[in-house]
């Protein structure tokens, strides 16, 4: 077998993997979901008791506005516990939360930083709801969004319900446009997965889980929100995406900060899947195992496929003229991404460079995360991404901001 044939095989395999991860897998989901029209969740006869948990670390600039919005959510107040879990905040966050005590907001302070999962573990002893709603301090949940999320549990087969992330600008800010494109794509794939059976990972910003599934201590270096769908599968239940449960997620102004966040979250996600790797067994978990492999493992392999494709094209370009054209295209894409990466953060980058910068940096983050997993590195300490406050207050205004 000649070197050229090996290079062609590597190139074909790489292209096939990338195509399957982002086009083939959703296309198969679409085919499998034909005739399975989603039904909006109907209100239950009586609303269950819920606990809304908000883990925070040094959120003094946003927590008051967050709590005002949470208190305004349409849900029976006598059936609702609001619990802020402070991961040893040092900036006055706890004092601000205490000013809401007369409105029913509870504070649990973790005296020593343990990271997000550690803070969530500490809260297990004090949550009282039958359904646990997990959110964070940087997003905005419209007042009408909680009821559809909870209504999903009227279906006894549902163990986890995940909200619909809508990526929005902050007031006067249109940076990091690539993020909104990717978030929209991800929500579409989750909707298809829900029609087929269920999603393989919940949104960490806004999701709900049955209390008996949540009441499990979880290793602090791992991701509880990603694992929630896998825990549901282990108990014979499913996780679903609820399009009516909108939550507004401000885009990260800094692409550099978003890159660092992705390295941390993907490292934790990969380590979480390693911890739950038995769920990749199709003999025991059927369609769920296939979706977990396709949605997560294949996506994490895409950057390595890209590196292999570039090496193969480089080898072929010496003897095969057609290989030079995609190499030139890749070079142009990398230059555009570099320009987007270097663009001043106080100004919005043109989409021509913003989207390549977001996509390329995300793939590099996946490369670094996989290397960190192989080396046994962990990111247990929580460093929340500072996103500011979501500006839109209605679904329509949010979509106009995209």
Q: What's the number of helices?
A: 13
Distance between the termini: 50 Å
Provide the succession of SSEs.
HEHEHEHEHEHEHHEHHHHH
Mean pLDDT: 88
Overall 3D geometry?
Answer: globular
Oligomer: single chain
Report strand %.
Answer: 5-15%
Unreliable segments (pLDDT under 50, ≥5 consecutive)? 171-176, 397-402
Give keywords:
single chain, alpha/beta, 13 helices, globular
Q: What would you say this structure looks like, in words?
A:
By secondary structure, the protein is α/β, with parallel strands linked by helices. It is built from 13 helices and seven strands. 50% of the residues lie in helices and 14% in strands. Mean pLDDT is 88; it is low at 171-176 and 397-402. Helix 9 (255-275) packs parallel to helix 12, helix 10 (282-316) crosses helix 12 and helix 11 packs across helix 12.
Give a brief outline of the structure.
By secondary structure, the chain is an alpha/beta fold.
Give the helix/strand layout.
Blueprint: H1 3-32, E1 50-56, H2 63-71, E2 80-87, H3 93-98, E3 105-110, H4 115-123, E4 131-135, H5 146-151, E5 158-168, H6 177-196, E6 206-210, H7 211-214, H8 224-234, E7 238-250, H9 255-275, H10 282-316, H11 324-342, H12 351-374, H13 395-401
Parallel strand pairs: 1-2, 1-4, 2-3, 5-7
Antiparallel strand pairs: 4-6, 5-6
Helix pairs in contact: 1-6, 1-10, 6-12, 9-12, 10-11, 10-12, 11-12
């Amino acid at each position: 077998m000649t070197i050229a044939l090996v290079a062609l095989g590597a190139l074909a395999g790489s292209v096939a993997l990338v195509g399957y991860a982002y086009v083939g897998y959703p296309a198969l989901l679409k085919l499998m979901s034909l005739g399975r029209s989603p039904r909006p969740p109907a209100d239950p006869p009586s609303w269950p008791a819920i606990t809304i948990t908000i883990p925070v670390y040094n959120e003094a600039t946003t927590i008051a506005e967050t709590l005002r919005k949470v208190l305004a959510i349409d849900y029976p107040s006598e059936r609702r516990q609001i619990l802020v879990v402070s991961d040893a905040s040092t900036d006055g966050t706890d004092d601000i939360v205490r000013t809401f005590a007369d409105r029913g907001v509870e504070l649990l302070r973790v005296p020593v930083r343990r990271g997000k999962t550690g803070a969530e573990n500490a809260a297990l002893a004090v949550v009282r709801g039958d359904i646990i709603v997990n959110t964070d301090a940087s997003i905005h949940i419209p007042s009408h969004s909680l009821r559809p999320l909870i209504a999903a549990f009227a279906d006894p087969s549902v163990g986890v319900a995940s909200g619909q992330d809508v990526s929005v600008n902050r007031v006067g800010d249109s940076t990091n446009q690539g993020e909104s494109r990717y978030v929209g794509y991800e929500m579409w794939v989750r909707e298809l997965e829900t029609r087929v059976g269920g999603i393989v990972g919940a949104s960490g910003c806004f999701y709900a889980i049955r209390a008996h599934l949540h009441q499990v201590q979880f290793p602090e270096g791992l991701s509880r929100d990603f694992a929630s769908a896998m825990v549901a599968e282990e108990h014979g239940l499913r996780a679903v995406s609820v399009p009516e449960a909108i939550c507004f997620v401000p885009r990260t102004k800094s692409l550099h900060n978003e890159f660092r966040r992705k390295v941390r979250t993907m490292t934790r996600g990969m380590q979480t899947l390693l911890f739950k790797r038995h769920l990749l067994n199709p003999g025991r978990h059927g369609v769920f195992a296939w979706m977990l492999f396709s949605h997560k493992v294949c996506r994490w392999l895409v950057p390595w496929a890209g590196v292999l494709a570039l090496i193969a094209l480089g080898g072929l370009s010496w003897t095969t003229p057609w290989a030079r054209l995609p190499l030139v295209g890749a070079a142009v894409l990398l230059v555009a991404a570099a320009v987007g990466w270097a663009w001043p953060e106080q100004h919005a980058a043109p989409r021509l460079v913003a989207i390549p910068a977001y996509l390329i940096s995300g793939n590099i983050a996946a490369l670094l995360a996989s290397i960190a997993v192989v080396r046994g590195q962990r990111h247990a300490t929580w460093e929340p991404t500072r996103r500011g406050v979501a500006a839109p207050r209605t679904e329509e205004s949010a979509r106009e901001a995209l």
